[in-house]
Amino acid sequence: MITALDPTALDGLADLLVEVVDAGASVGFLAPLDHADALAWWKERAADPRLTVWVAHEGPRVVGTVSLAFPDKPNSRHRAELVKLMVARDARGRGLGRRLLDAAEEAAVADGVTLLHLDTETDSPAERLYQGAGWTRAGVIPDYAADPGGTLRPTTLYYKRIGPPGSGG
């Protein structure tokens, strides 16, 4: 089940973040990531009014998440950045990533967003997900961020026009 962020999910989100970083996902952290640090990061994110977070559960366990970050500038309120799409290793390959992506896109349309953008580690499995969901590759930035092991890796930028006809989507 995919729901909006509930504060009771923060500990599970911290577990998920630690898991994906330990597995090598480039999501902004170096390994090893301490659970307390991951929990503090999620608490900060939960308090950010410009961020909307969705959480996927299997029973009581958090198995996935995705967020939309909304800019605070008047000239950019038509867009949002898709951030931190994460799926637990044992929940992959069952369409959960796509369902999380769809939930974020549907909510963005409902909020009047007509353009989404994101970046993801070049040649990561996430690239196939975004390409299959109709996202357009905009380019690659070399040596953009360190992976969890500290090696600089390129990132690929993607965007997607969304929304009803006539909205720019």
TrEMBL record:
InterPro entries (alphabetical): Acyl_CoA_acyltransferase, Bact_Acetyltransf, GNAT_dom
Pfam families: Acetyltransf_1 (PF00583)
Keywords: Acyltransferase, Transferase
A Gene Ontology molecular function term of the record: acyltransferase activity, transferring groups other than amino-acyl groups
Residue span(s) of domain N-acetyltransferase: 1-163
Domain of life: Bacteria
Keyword S-adenosyl-L-methionine assigned: no
Keyword Transferase: yes
The protein, known as: GNAT family N-acetyltransferase
Protein species of origin: Streptomyces roseirectus
